[in-house]
Amino acid sequence: MRMRAWIGRAFPGPWRWKLAVREVLGGLLVCGLAALFQAGDSGGWPSGLVVGACAVLFALRRGLPGPVLVVSAAGVGGPAGFLPVLVVAGYSAGRRISRPWRTPAVLGLGFLATVGVGLLQNGRDHFPLPVLLGLCVAGYLLTGVLPAVIGRYRAQRVALLDSLRERNTQLLRERVMIARQARLRERHRIAQDMHDSLGHQLALIAVHTGALEVDRTLGEQQREAVAVLRQAATGAMRELREVVGLLREDTATAPGGVDAIDRLAETSRAAGARIELRHLGTPRPLPAPTGHAAYRIAQEGLTNAHKHAPGTAIELTVRYEPDTLVVEVVNGPGGDGTAAVSGGQGLTGLRERARLLGGMVHSGPLPDGGFRLAGMLPYTAEGARAALPDDEELALLAGELVEPEKRRRSPAVGCALGALAVLGVVAAVAALGAIMFVSSLRDATVPTRLYDAVEVGQSEQSVNERLPVGSEFLTQDFRRIGPPLPEGAHCRWFAGDREGDDQDVVRFCFKDGLLVEKQHFHGKV
């Protein structure tokens, strides 16, 4: 169980196929670069061992970014093949180490590991200590610290974006709740006003028409007319209760529908209207907003026909097209046929209702003097916005939100300053290294006139006082070329100032406190 926990920590998931492919390709790239760097290193390290170690470190960098960075930094102090994996480990450490104090601590340990291994390797390379420290600082800042700064910026940016999304979602939900509460309060107020005003008047009409219906002084036709009025008042009361219930209950279904159009036609026939109702096409289930809109179109068309063309024939058609429900009301000529066009808010409300559902309403006079009102409504309620569900309302408001933390300082500022600091230190180290190299080159060069002025047989002390201090780092390869050394003598090597294809070398050999030989030769280093 503990072994499984360690494996899960070293190789954190979830391992989707995209992540696996990316890891494999990245590992191959790092190992290939490690092999190229190791091919140019003359340190004698086995290339296979270095490449294998780089592969293991690359695989472990996601779960163990700190230890991998320290080990990679220590490896860079020796073989050059660890450079690619150090860059990747630095980025991973900056990206995945979340606690602020851990990242500098890990980077500091990595630098100490680089310097420590570099000091151990100095016996082979013979670097001067200042040069070695400068190379370690500049190289580690470029290959370890700078990738860590970039990874840290990336992690902070992702965290900031996640925080902004979460805050936007919270603000969005609060905004939807406030809008819904305001809508419910307004609905309750409208419902109360309608109930108190219209309900009272309709109740009086129903009561008085009921009394007239049993009045014996009225004739049969008058009683039938009063009965129609009472039925109309009762129907109006029923619809008013449905509307009030719709306003008070946010989840209530809309009053009326396509099925209620038949009852609407029967009521108009009872009032004496000549109505022909036709249902064409194959009926299909409709969303509640679409059915209610169809009912309102039929109701508005019949109302306009009763008002502006009383007594004329009316054709009411409900037609199921392949993709649209068509409700059409056509009345013949009678009265002022254009009055319905300027009838007020009824047609305007129908057009707005149909538009919100993704449909349209057309109205206008006919050539024979009649009037036609037709509505085309889609079967789906995707375009409906009159009664939005929560997720659709949320989606609509999401496009209107602005980022609440837009003015917050970006983490790119801090990371950019860190990167500039790293580059500044590297530039300073490079400038100092250039100055030290020029100084070392001057200390390791003996001019021709000085070589000619020194004579064999002079004391070692007097000769050394005239010679420059030298540089073992720059002249260490000179020992492999030139004539054999005098037996029992110790020598000093310098670079000459004569130009040529081969290296100009000057050698002074001392024995028993005297200069016993001086040589000036050329060779390939």
Q: Which SSEs are present, and which pair or pack?
A:
Elements: H1 2-10, H2 17-39, H3 47-60, H4 65-76, H5 83-96, H6 102-125, H7 129-213, H8 220-248, H9 260-270, E1 274-280, H10 288-308, E2 313-320, E3 324-331, H11 345-356, E4 360-365, E5 371-378, H12 390-398, H13 411-443, E6 445-446, H14 448-453, H15 460-466, H16 472-475, E7 490-496, E8 503-511, E9 514-523
Helix pairs in contact: 2-3, 2-5, 3-4, 3-5, 4-5, 4-6, 5-7, 6-7, 7-8, 7-12, 7-13, 9-10, 10-11
Q: Can you offer a commentary on this structure?
A:
This protein has helices at 2-10, 17-39, 47-60, 65-76, 83-96, 102-125, 129-213, 220-248, 260-270, 288-308, 345-356, 390-398, 411-443, 448-453, 460-466, 472-475; strands spanning 274-280, 313-320, 324-331, 360-365, 371-378, 445-446, 490-496, 503-511, 514-523. With 525 residues, the protein is α+β, with helices and mostly antiparallel strands. The strands form two sheets. Strands 1-2-3-5-4 form a five-stranded mixed sheet. Strands 6-7-8-9 form a four-stranded mixed sheet. Helix 10 links the parallel strand 1 (274-280) and strand 2. The longest helix has 85 residues, at 129-213.
